[in-house]
Amino acid sequence: MCKVLDEIEKRGYQQGIQQGIQQGTLDGVKQGRAEREAQIILNLYKNNVSMRQIASSVERSVDEIREVIERKKKLLS
C-alpha cells in the first residue's frame, strides 16, 4: 500500500514540476514580448514619431505610451 501511495505522490510531484516549468515559460514569453514592445515604442519616439501615432500603431493609449517612455528613459539613465 505504501508503494502505491509513494508512486502517486511521485507522479503528483512530477506533474507539479512540469506545470511550473510550463507556466514559467509562458510568463517569460509574455515578459519578453512586453519588453520588445517597449523598446519599439522608445525607438519610434527617438525617431520623432508622435506619441499619438505610436499609440495608434501599437493599439495603446497615449498615457500608456508616455508611461513606457518614461520608464525606459529611467532605466537607461
Offer a quick outline of the entry.
The chain is mainly α.
Fold and architecture overview:
This protein has 77 residues and is mainly α. It is built from three helices and no strands. It has helices spanning 2-46, 51-58, 62-76.
Mean pLDDT figure: 91
Radius of gyration: 22 Å
Shape: rod-shaped
Query: Would you count the extended β strands for me?
Result: 0
Residue runs with pLDDT of under 50 for 5 or more positions: none
User: Ends: how far apart?
Assistant: 63 Å
The main pleated sheet reads as: none
SSE pattern: HHH
SSE diagram, text form:
Blueprint: H1 2-46, H2 51-58, H3 62-76
Offer a few descriptive terms.
single chain; 77 residues; mainly alpha; rod-shaped
